[in-house]
Write a structure and sequence with these properties.
single chain; alpha/beta; two-stranded parallel ribbon; 8 helices
């Protein structure tokens, strides 16, 4: 084998290794680094999940919309924002929704020291529990980024890691109908796969408190109207 051939082969293997690691660490449905909760097997079930709150005024507007449709959802809260607005966290809990841990400050845990990973999770849970009086049992890693030790730490702290199987990309959406159609398309894919749907949406934004989520709110309103009587809306604890 020539030197050039060996270098090319080494480069290919390095690229494949890097691609495999990226898939294991960040692809939402990957189970390579450890089991995460994604969805059930009933195709008529759907969980609406909202990250990066609590957020004023959009979380409360979302709560009003969900109450109108008698729907429960799952909210993965950031500790920094719970510290700032514990009243909104309490309102989510009092409305009967499921609350989960989304770390204090939303770092990518793929690159975070293990000691800080633990601190982010412990502190976020404590803030939520202080605000609501309810133990936190579910955790969603920011950006979906995880390592085996991150998942192990969450489990050690009594929380099940939760991912998703529909990425709505609402963080940069500008058209509510396009956003709603994107979710509907993802649900059709899950139907063909024999899976329930776990929809990733955002009621806040990790970069700033007060992030505009009016497009997500309008898309959620459209989806709930379209789904009336066709789907069972559940929280992620229905699946494990």
């Amino acid at each position: 084998m020539s030197t050039l051939t060996r270098l090319v082969s080494a480069g290919v293997m390095t690229g494949l290794t890097a691609a495999g690691y990226a898939y294991a660490a960040q692809w939402p449905t990957s189970q390579i680094f450890g089991r995460t909760l994604i969805a059930g097997s009933a195709i008529d079930e759907c969980a609406l999940t909202f990250d990066d709150g609590p957020n004023d005024p959009y979380t409360q507007q979302l709560l009003d919309l969900l109450a109108h449709h008698q729907v429960r959802a799952t909210f993965f809260l950031m500790g920094d924002y719970v510290r700032r607005r514990p009243d909104i966290a309490r309102a989510i809990h009092q409305a009967g929704h499921l609350l989960g841990n989304h770390t204090v400050s939303h770092p990518s845990l793929l690159w975070t020291r293990p000691a800080r990973v633990r601190e982010e999770l412990v502190t976020c849970s404590a803030l939520i529990e202080d605000a609501t009086g309810e133990a936190v049992k579910y955790f969603r890693p920011p950006f979906g980024a995880r390592r085996p030790d991150v998942l192990h730490t969450a489990l050690e702290l009594g929380m099940k890691p939760v991912m998703w199987n529909i990425t709505a990309h609402d963080w940069d959406a500008t058209d509510a109908q396009v956003l709603a159609a994107r979710v509907q398309s993802g649900m059709q894919r899950n139907h063909h796969r024999g899976s329930s749907s776990n929809v990733l949406l955002h009621d806040g934004g990790h970069r700033a408190f007060g992030t505009d989520r009016s497009v997500t709110l309008a898309a959620t309103q459209s989806l709930l109207a379209a789904w009336a009587g066709a789907y069972r809306l559940v929280t992620v604890d229905a699946w494990g």
